[in-house]
Specification:
Blueprint lengths: L5 H13 L6 E2 L2 E2 L6 H7 L11 E2 L7 H6 L3 E13 L5 E12 L2 E14 H4 L3 E4 L9 E2 L3 E3 L3 E3 L2
Parallel strand pairs: 3-8
Antiparallel strand pairs: 1-2, 4-5, 5-6, 6-10, 7-9
Length: about 150
Amino acid sequence: MRVVRQSELVAANLLIEFIQQKRIFENGVLKTYFIDTYHEKKMNVPPTIGSPSILTLQTGTKALEGLIAGVSKGILVTGFNGGNCNSSTGDFSYGMEGFLIEKGELTIPISEMNLTGNMFTLWHSLVETGNDPRLSSSWRIPSLVFEGVNFSGI
């Protein structure tokens, strides 16, 4: 673990403004692939980038409280407790904890449940994004609302 000085954070934020942004998806259409130098040679295509340095998802207009208020029955996932994802098939299973949502309000805490499904179909069920991206990592992902997600262990 490395302690980062405030001046380094400011410098990093300034640098980000000068880095060319590439859209991965635009209006639901795939615009680019992550092609590193190894796969460039193997596939005989020009390289793009091996992986993103900062991945962002377009934010919505509602705060987390507004997203919760719009859910009649659901689960707010607040943390994951391990799990796995098959990168070939997209199948996943993650342990999670959170709160039950009933009539737009958080009711009871839940834990030791599993969230299961397929990544390819999960992203098709995204219905809303929040206006609250986490700024603590290289991913800038806001709160997300999905429909039809599979939970077990209630």
